[in-house]
TrEMBL record:
Span within the parent record: 527 to 816 of 816
Domain EAL residue range list: 24-279
UniProt-recorded name of the protein: Diguanylate cyclase
Tree of life domain: Bacteria
Organism of derivation: Caenispirillum salinarum AK4
Amino acid sequence: HAKRGDERRYATYLPSMEEQSLAVLNMENDLRLALAAGAFELHFQPKVSAETGDVMGAEALIRWPHPERGMISPMDFIPLAEESGLIMPLGRWILRDACRRMVAWRAQGIAPPSLSVNVSPRQFADPSLTETIERTLEETGLPPECLDIEITESVTSGDVERVISTMAALKAMGITLSVDDFGTGYSSLNYLKRFPIDTLKIDQSFVRDLMDTKGKDAAICATVVALGNNLGFTVVAEGVETADQARFLYEKGCHMLQGYWISRPLPAAAFTAWLAEMSEPEQPAALTAG
Ligand code: C2E
Ligand code: MG
Ligand code: MG
Ligand code: MG
C-alpha cells in the first residue's frame, strides 16, 4: 500500500533527538567560525517620516550568508547565539560595524539622522554594555545622538532597577531607546511610565492585518499610536507593506514608517546607493517634464 510505505519512509527521515542536538552543536560551531572569519553582514532598512517620506533613520539587521544553507535568518541563529553566549562577541561586532557605516555615510553627507541597533535581552543584562557602547562610539567617532538602541519588552523581565539604571546611563550619553515589537510582550503600561524610552515600534503582526474587515488590528494600531502620542513618544510602525497601511497609520498620527513598502533591508552597498539617491535634490518639475 503506497500510502503506508510513504509514511514509513518519512518516519525514517525524522531526525532523532541525537541528530537534532548534533545539528544545534554544528550550528553553534558554525556560528563561532563565522564570527572568527568575519562572515556576518549587516543589512539596513530605512525608517521614513509618515508625513513627508524623509529618511529619519535606519535599522541594522544582521544576516548570515552560509556557504551551504544560503542566507540564514537572524530568527534562526540569534536565539542560539543568546543561549550559547556568542551574542556577546557577535553583539560587539554588530555595534562596531553599524557605527562605522554611519560614520562613512556622514562623511558622504547622506546619513540618516540616526541608526538603530538591536540589542538582545542577554546583551542588555550584561553590566559591561554601557561601557562597550561608549568605547565603540569613541573609537568610531560616531556622535551618541546618532545611535538608537532597540530593545524588546522582554528585557524588562530582569531586575527592574538595574534595567532602569542601564537605560538611564545610555540616555545620559545621548543615545535614544526604542521598544521593539511593542504589544507582543508583558507589562507594557507599567514600564511605559517608568522607563526612559523615546520610541515605540508597533509590532508588524498588528500592521500586517491592519486592513482586515474585522478591524481588531486597526483598533490596536490606532490605540498604540494614540498612547505613544499622549505619552510623548515617537511612534514607528514596522512591517508596512502597502500604501493603504501607510495612509491609515499616518492618519492616526504615526510618525515613522518602516517596511517593504518603503524598502526591503538592503546590503550596505545597495543601501548606500539608496541613501545617495534619496538625498539628491529634487529636480524642478520644469526640467524633468518632457
Ligand atoms: P526586528 O528587530 O523586529 O526586525 C524587523 C524584522 O522585520 C526584520 O526581520 C525585517 O527584515 C522584517 N521586515 C521589515 N519590513 C518588513 C515588511 O514589510 N514585512 C515583513 N513581513 N517583514 C519585514 P529580520 O531581519 O529577519 O530580523 C528578525 C529579528 O531578528 C529582528 O526583529 C530582531 O529581533 C532580530 N535581529 C536582527 N538583527 C539583529 C541584530 O543585529 N542583533 C540582535 N540582537 N537581533 C537581531
Ligand atoms: Mg528591531
Ligand atoms: Mg520589530
Ligand atoms: Mg520582530
